[in-house]
Design brief:
Endonuclease Iii, domain 2; 59% helix; mainly alpha; Endonuclease III, domain 1
Length: 238
């Protein structure tokens, strides 16, 4: 095992091309290891068209995949297309998606987004972040997720709470906001790796780098982690 954490002092400045190169190479080392650790999970969400994926994306906010999948089966058996969704009685829609939480807001977003898709885009999805974030219920993070899943396009990088935490601890970004972390990650990540970065950091945050008790002793990238290096330093007797 080698220790590269010394090269990740907080003084690294991503405005500087040399520092950026160091960080980009560090990130590639991390991805190589994390890719082996966290095999890409199968897409387990229930949807069969791009349109249905958008509806599922709206439902997933503050809800779990398991709950959304149960709802999606019945929902799409009744309202599989934007035309049918727009025409659905609002109360009926709210009843169907109630278990996903925030159901009144989500039902509204689903119908409004369906209407925009039909009226503004003639049923053909736009494929840019700026256009997708105009759909009600689709924020930057969810638009990134949707673009990656539906079209394999990575304009930005999805930064959820796990990606944020793992990026901070590994020393990839000191950003306090998700948008700053995304900005830093984008600067050092080739577009072909952007989807992978968020998938692997998410998986690592969910399975190993827990918020309260990260499993540094069992972590495959602890030798590349600034947080783990700082913890080791603390435990060295002075
Ligand atoms: S060493 Fe610890 S803090 Fe660093 S990534 Fe692994 S689990 Fe997270």
């Amino acid at each position: 095992m080698y220790d590269r954490t010394n090269s990740l002092k907080p003084s690294l400045n991503l405005e500087n091309p040399q520092d950026r190169e160091v960080m980009a190479s560090h990130l590639l080392d991390l991805l190589d290891i994390l890719e082996v650790e966290h095999q890409k999970p199968d897409d387990t969400l229930v949807y069969s068209t791009t349109y249905q994926l958008l509806m599922v994306t709206i439902l997933l906010t503050q809800s779990s995949e398991d709950v959304v999948n149960v709802v999606a089966r019945e929902l799409f058996s009744l309202y599989p297309t934007p035309e049918l969704m727009v025409a659905a009685p609002r109360r009926e829609l709210e009843r169907l998606i109630q278990s996903c939480g925030f159901y009144r807001q989500k039902a509204k977003y689903m119908q409004e987004s369906s209407k925009i898709l039909l009226e503004k885009y003639d049923g053909i999805f736009p494929q840019t972040l700026i256009e997708l974030t105009q759909f009600p219920g689709i924020a930057r993070k969810t638009a990134n997720q949707f673009l990656a899943q539906a079209f394999n396009i990575a304009e930005g990088i999805v930064v959820d709470t796990h990606v944020h935490r793992v990026s901070n601890r590994l020393g990839i970004s000191e950003g306090k906001s998700a948008s700053k972390v995304e900005h830093d990650l984008v600067r050092i990540t080739e577009s072909k790796h952007r989807i992978l970065v968020s998938e692997l950091f998410m998986a690592h945050g969910q399975k190993v780098c827990y918020i309260h008790e990260p499993m540094c002793g069992n972590c495959a990238v602890s030798h590349l982690c600034r947080y783990a290096a700082a913890e080791r330093d603390k435990s060295v007797p002075t």
